[in-house]
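Tokens for chain A. Residues wanted.
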């Protein structure tokens, strides 16, 4: 693992991600490894199914996620 000490924002982000994963996954956490599916599944198990569904997470991580139309966003403002 290489951390550029000249990029404090990148260091904070990596530390934050690894801390979040450690708190969520416990002994299943593997530092600096992508564990997206495991994290998504754990969050779904901990959340209210009516609010967060596994399909939501899967849509966020597909190669080309759907984008909201700007007029639809304007209606919610």
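Reply:
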């Amino acid at each position: 693992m290489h951390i550029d000490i000249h990029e404090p924002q990148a260091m904070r982000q990596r530390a934050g991600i690894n801390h979040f994963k450690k708190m969520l996954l416990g002994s299943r956490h593997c530092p600096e490894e992508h564990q997206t599916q495991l994290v998504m599944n754990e969050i779904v198990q901990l959340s209210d199914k009516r609010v967060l569904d596994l399909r939501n997470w899967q849509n966020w991580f597909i190669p080309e996620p759907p984008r909201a139309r700007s007029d639809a966003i304007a209606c919610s403002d």
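The chain is about 55% helix and 0% strand. The first helix runs from residue 8 to 25.
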